[in-house]
Amino acid sequence: MTFIIYSDKYLLHDDPSHPENASRLAAIMELLEKMPFYEKLKFVEPESIQESEMAEVHSSEMIENAKRTGWLDMDTYTNEYSYEVAKLAAGGVKKACEIVMERGGNAFALVRPPGHHATSTRSMGFCLFNNVAIAAHYSAKRGRKVLIFDHDVHHGNGTQDIFYERSDVMYQSIHLSPHYPGTGSVMEVGKGEGEGYTVNLPLPHGVGDDCIMEAMEEVFIPVAREFSPDLIIISAGFDSHHADPLGGMNLSLSIYARIIQEFSRVQSRMVCSLEGGYNLTYLARGVAVEIGEMCGMPALFDDSAEGRKCSGEIKELKGEMEKYWNMR
Ligand SMILES: [Zn+2]
C-alpha cells in the first residue's frame, strides 16, 4: 500500500514571488489526479507535531524565532500561517513514518515548507524546521535504525548537523558542489559515535544518471545494506533534475525511479518527503515517477539528458567509506 500525506493547509505558507511557493504543491496535486495510479493511493491527513517533540531536535530559541512573520534569513520567509504549517509538515512526515512502521508499505509526504537545511539551532534555506530529522529522531527513539537518502541538488546541512554524532540515523547525500549551502564534503563522515554514518558525495556541474547509478552500486547501496535500516526516508528534492532553475545537475526523471527501486530492495518500509524542486512541470513529474515506482505502476514521461560520469568522485568517497564498512 502506498500512502500519501497531504493537506490543503500546506498551501497557506506562501509568497508567490519566491521560488518555494504554494504553486509547487498545487502543480504536483494537479498531475497526480491525472495519473493512472491515482485511485490506488491512500490519502492520509497529517497531524501537527507537538512543540515538545520539536524541541528534541531544535533549540527553543529557534522554535520561538520561527513564530515571527517576515524573513528568518536572507531567503526564508514566513507569513501568519507559516508556523502552524511548518508544524503540520513535520507532523506529516512523522505520521508517514508511523504508518509505514505499523502497516508496512511506503508513503510520500507531500509537505511544505521543506526541511533539510534547518539545523538544530537555525531555520535557513527556505526551511523552518527539519521535517525529516524530526521524524527520523522520533523513529530512532523507538528503536528503529533509520537511513536518510537525500537526492536534492543542495546538501542537507541541517539533517547532517542533527545526526552528525549518532549511529542510529545514517545520512547519505548526493549534491552539487560548490553550491548552496557549501557543506557536504567527502571528508565530513560523522564524529564520535557517528563516524562513518554520514556519507557525502559532492558532485561537479553536469553529472547525469550514470553517475548516480554508479554511486548507488559502488557506495550508497552496499553501505545501506550493511547498516541494515528498519526504515528508509528519502529527502526527495527534484532540483537535481536537468530542467531545474536552481540546479546544475543533468539528471533525467528515470533516475528517481531507479533510486526508489534500489533502496526498496534494502528496505521496503520507505517514506519520501518533499524537499526542493522549482521547475513546476518536472517537480510534479518527478514526484509522479517516485510514487508510480512505489505503488508498482511506473509513470513514464518522455525525458532524457546527457550527463557526465563521476567515477573519480565515487572512488574518493569509496576510499573514505572503506574505513568504516566492508562495502560488499
Ligand atoms: Zn534544494
Structure characterization notes:
The chain is an alpha/beta fold. The protein has 10 helices and 10 strands. The chain has a single domain (2-321), classed as Arginase, Chain A. The protein has helices at residues 23-32, 51-54, 60-65, 82-103, 131-141, 157-163, 209-227, 254-266, 280-294, 311-321; strands spanning 2-5, 42-44, 70-73, 76-78, 106-109, 146-150, 169-176, 198-203, 231-236, 270-274. The chain has an 8-stranded parallel β-sheet, sandwiched between helices. A two-stranded antiparallel ribbon has the order 3-4. The structure holds zinc ion. The site of zinc ion (ZN) has 7 residues, from loops.
Strand percentage: 5-15%
The backbone outline, from C-alpha atoms, is globular
Rg value: 18 Å
The CA-CA distance between the termini, in Å, is: 31 Å
CATH topology: Arginase, Chain A
Strand order of the largest sheet: 2-1-5-10-9-6-7-8
Bound small-molecule species: zinc ion
Largest sheet: 8 strands, parallel
The H/E string reads EHEHHEEHEHEHEEHEHEHH
Quick overview:
By secondary structure, the chain is of the alpha/beta class. The protein has ten helices and ten strands.
What are the SSEs and their pairings?
Blueprint: E1 2-5, H1 23-32, E2 42-44, H2 51-54, H3 60-65, E3 70-73, E4 76-78, H4 82-103, E5 106-109, H5 131-141, E6 146-150, H6 157-163, E7 169-176, E8 198-203, H7 209-227, E9 231-236, H8 254-266, E10 270-274, H9 280-294, H10 311-321
